[in-house]
Amino acid sequence: MKKIITTTEAPAPIGPYNQAVLTGNTLYTSGQIAINPKTGELVLENIKAETTQVMNNLKAVLKAADMTFENVIKSTIFISNMDDFVNINEVYGSYFDDATAPARETVQVARLPKNVNVEISVIAIK
Questions:
Q1: Among 53, 100, 108, 115, whose CB has the most other CB atoms within 10 angstroms?
Q2: Contact 101, 75 (CB under 8 A)
Q3: What angle do CA 62, 17, 122 make, to 5 degrees?
Q4: Which Pfam families does its entry note (predicted)?
């Protein structure tokens, strides 16, 4: 059985999906982009600010499921320019303990929703 996870502290979906789905003890988040949930505006000043907003959106979704980044076992990062990887990785890494960081892949893609530069999704367990 699945439970839909939603929070007003992360952006509302911009399509036919939910912020996250909890099934058993496993949470699957939808990809988050850098939409400020309070203003609805994109945060695109620079790649670090953009990635910070993405991670804060994920943090809010995890919190709505009574989880934290410590519960994350897998993440997927989609980026539009691999040259941004170092800066994205620096921000992303600040949300995890190196010793218990999740498995991850990072993929460069041709285009992301709303022409953002980074989108991240995670899988977490209780």
A1: 53
A2: no
A3: 35
A4: Ribonuc_L-PSP
For residues 101 and 89, give the distance between their C-alpha atoms in angstroms, rounded to a whole number: 12
Q: Look up residue 109 and give its DSSP letter.
A: -
Q: What's the Cα-to-Cα distance from 43 to each of 77, 89, 99, rounded to whole Å? A: 17, 17, 30
How do residues 35-82 score in pLDDT, each as one tens digit? 999 999 999 999 999 999 999 999 999 999 999 999 999 999 999 999
Task: Walk across the sheet containing 20-23 and list its strands.
Answer: 2-5, 20-23, 26-29, 118-125, 72-79, 103-108
Q: Give the span between the Cα atoms of 24 and 30, in whole angstroms.
A: 17
Tokens of 4: 């839909």
Half-sphere exposure in the Cβ direction for 76 (13 Å, CA): 11
Which domain does 12 fall in, by range? 2-125
Taking the C-alpha atoms of residue 62 and residue 56, their distance in angstroms, rounded to an integer, is: 10
Query: What domain count does the chain have?
Result: 1
